[in-house]
From TrEMBL:
UniProt-recorded name of the protein: Radical SAM superfamily protein
Domain of life: Bacteria
Keyword field contains Chloroplast: no
One Pfam family linked to the record: Radical_SAM
Keywords of this entry: Iron, Iron-sulfur, Metal-binding, S-adenosyl-L-methionine
Keyword Zinc: no
UniProt-listed Gene3D superfamilies: Aldolase class I
Alphabetized GO MF terms: catalytic activity; iron-sulfur cluster binding; metal ion binding
High-level lineage: Bacteria, Bacillati, Bacillota, Clostridia, Lachnospirales
Native source species: Blautia wexlerae
Amino acid sequence: MKVNKIQTEKNKDKTLRQDTESCILADCSLCPRNCHVDRTAGKTGYCGMNQKVKIARAALHMWEEPCISGTRGSGAVFFTGCNLRCCFCQNREIAIGDSGLEITEERLAEIFLELQEKDAANINLVTGTHYIPQIIAALDCAKKQGLNIPVVYNCGGYENTETLKLLDGYVDIYLPDYKYAESELAVKFSHANDYPERAMEAVNEMVRQTGMPQFDAEGYMKRGTIVRHLILPGHTRNSKKVLKLLHKTFGKQIYISIMNQYTPVFEQKEYTELNRCVTRREYEKVLDYAFELGIENGFFQDGETARESFIPAFDYEGVRKMP
């Protein structure tokens, strides 16, 4: 009778979770697009995805910030679809939904555990905004089976704070972008005029959840928020505004990662300034400004980072269950 009672309670919890998940996805407003489509009926909103989870790669990733990848690698899970779909996206293949395999929540939990078995430093959820209910279910399942490494939420920064609150207690490290301080650029490149406001609200919520950055003895981040900013060619003014805003608002509560790895992976017909890499002078100008502001907690990139070889192959590695 005791065993049966425990099993009954588990079934009740699972049913309640599924009902909650269906309720959210049936009128989807997980992100600021607020599409209100019924994804449980196969409909898709701006992200291009219905309720079925699709991922394109799950493998150790060595090219994140040193405190995320280190020498062990970050257990990166690349989700298909995106709520921004920037015109210059380096991961366009998955952002627009052309790549990815459908998996169950149970398989997603297995993938988390398999990455942990490979000695991943963390589980790195890459662009999973539109799958947050399913991710939470998979994390619950994986944690019951022994998942105990930090969870990283790696996103474009265009988030609803109410949705982020669902992740409180599940995510240890937030790794958002802060792409634009200028709404004009947000409209042009990402069709999101409210990006600066929504991203700032999101980072505030992330910092509330994680608190001050914490690291282990090996230098890996255990908790905290790292905000990334990708410099775009010809737009150093926007980058300076981003750095000033972030530093003024958060100071040492966050780390700032200043990135020069912009790669023109396809020709831009309308925004031709994006058809080149960021110059050394542009990057140095932004870095100099960061030093002038007094930014101490941060990362910058050195060497030839603007190469297509830094873009992972979305070849379904780690997605299929091995026999």
